[in-house]
Amino acid sequence: MVSRRKKILSFAVTAAALLLLFLFAVNTGSLKVTPLELFKGLFIEYIENVATVFDLRFPRIFIAMLGGAATAVSGVLLQAVMKNPLADPGIIGISSGASLAAVLITAFFPALYFFTPFFAFLGGMVAFLLVYSLSWKGGLSPLRIILVGVAVNAMFTGIMSAFNSGTGSNYSGVASIVNANITMKTWDDFSTLLWYVVVGLAASFFVAGSCNLLALEDKTARSLGVNVTRSRIVISVIAVLLAGISTAVIGPISFLGLIVPHIARLLVGSNHKVLIPYTIILGAFTLLLADTVGRTIAAPYEISASIIMSVVGGPFFILLLRRSRQSYGQ
Amino acid sequence: MANDIFAVKDLSFAYGKQQVLNSLSLTLHEGTITTLIGANGCGKSTLFNLMTKNLKPDTGEIYLQDRNIEQLRLKDYAKQVAIVHQYNTAPVDLTVEKLVSYGRTPYHTMGLSPDAKEDEEKVRWAMEITHTAKHKDKPVSELSGGQKQRVWIAMALAQDTKILFLDEPTTYLDIRYQLQILKLIRRLNREYGITIVMVLHDINQSLYYSDEIIAMKDGKIISHGLPEQVITSDLVQSVYDVDLTIKSVDGKPFILPV
Question: Which of A191, A326, B91, B252 has its CA 20 to 30 A from that of A30?
Fold first, then answer.
């Protein structure tokens, strides 16, 4: 049981931490701007340093936050649909299906570049359907989903790497998706991401109640008049949309959709009406943190956020796997 | 004769090639407690799932009053029939009150309640009658088996239906809780006029708490009527393939299940 006070406190602390991290991230790098300068430069007068930071660092920061929120919420939704705390868009191959589609579009149909997020969504959907149907055997066993997901993920990632290597990493757009590199992102990338993510996150609020009901046994949910199959489809589509879109712009990020919802459940409980909004904030915070750490830890070189997430997420995943029985449902 | 509230006509169902129900017909009477009995694998669970819209009949129809339930939307069905399934799970931090309030789901549109006050009243009533109100802020996961089962019944009652189905409501419970649940079920029937349909394994409990018993064997109904008419040595022999003595205690029949 999580008390009301703890929930409010978690929201407040995380939001404050996100704001501080944001200011820190803005100030990390060769150019320094004080918060006062930043405020002045953004809202009052032209300051060259601030303008540079605004064009180069801001898009990246906002993209990290949006992508983090989208990926984390996607994790929450997948976990609700599959009744499995280990479902993560990265681990079960949705992100790699999406990136493969994005890679193919970027390489072969550059004219369709604008529609990359849409194709990424389709790629993610293919991966999701593969995992779902292959692990269905009169029910979804949590472990089978993970095993099939790992295989699907490995296959898509393999094809993608093969493609990247086979073309001598010459397509920079391809390489940046494969490596989940968000260094060179612009405001255009941000606005592409923004609309899809806003739509996806808004939709996720609408299905929060259904997610709660899916946590009951399917038969019980049905006895309450819930069309379980339809709920599952709707929620899955939203989850794949969120993961696919963010993958199209920032590349596949593993473990984020696993770690963030897990911590969020410990802090604010399993009611999706609270869990989803909180996951948005914590997801934004976590990916921005990974990106900022990646930028500072070996400066002037950069380690991509997805690598940081994998290094931290791997051990965490093992920990969860060992105690997964207690963490969801029963 | 009481009104027919539920009618099953020529119902057949097969899992793949395995025929489970074969042209089965029955009627249930309004305001009664009807118990389904039969050996494992006789098809009573399948019948239960067909009547509760968890399965679709291969042939035949099921009528709720005059409506074919196949044509009823799940939501409309859930406003008339509540079901307590045998096996239930809930998130560890879900409170009793919150769970019981899920019973109001069929009345909501797009997750919004048209009448929050009525919801609140029904939920309170459901928790009071099942004696779960005192635990309303506790997580369901921390309750004992008997308390949990009462909470699931409370959720079904919050649906405010005239019919309540229960699938083996006393399984997994010790004798004290079994009796609590059965007495609660009888009270729901006698005081609130709720029509009860349940699956039970205990023949004596079926005898004692039912108005009518339906005995099934090999996907067919072999007897349907008043408990003391249905439960005979011959029937027990035929249904369960055991030879048991039937005794009379205070004018009521009881079997000795040893």
Answer: A191
Q: How confident is the model at residue A287 (pLDDT cuts 50, 70, 90)?
A: very high
Name residue, tokens 């010790």: B174
- For residue A213, the chain B residue with the least C-alpha distance is B102
Residues 6+ apart with CB under 8 A from B13: B19, B20, B21, B46, B50, B55, B57, B58
Q: Looking at the complex, report in whole angstroms how far the Cα of residue B226 sits from the nearest Cα belonging to chain A.
A: 29
Nearest to A102 by CA among A184, A186, A189: A189
pTM, entire model: 0.89
Q: Cα–Cα distance between B135 and B61 in angstroms, integer?
A: 42
Tokens representing residue A304 in the block? 């991509």
CB contact under 8 A, B87 and A217: yes
**pLDDT tier for residue B157 given thresholds of 50, 70 and 90:** very high
Out of A208, A215, A227, the one facing B74 most closely (by C-beta) is A227
What distances in angstroms separate CA B78 from CA A111, A140, A226, B71, B86, one per listed residue? Answer: 51, 26, 9, 13, 17
Q: Count CB neighbours of A300 within 10 A.
A: 7
Residues of A in contact with B79 (CB under 8 A): 225
Residue A9, pLDDT > 50, answer yes
Task: Note whether B106 contacts A: Cβ–Cβ < 8 A.
Answer: yes
Joined together, the tokens standing for residue B60 give 């035949």
Any A CB within 8 A of B93 CB: yes
Confidence band (pLDDT; 50, 70, 90) for A177? low
pLDDT for res B247: 85
Query: What is the ipTM, given to two decimal places?
Result: 0.91
Q: Which residue of B has its CA nearest to A228?
A: B74
Q: Is the pLDDT of residue A147 over 50?
A: yes
Residue A70, pLDDT above cutoff 90: yes
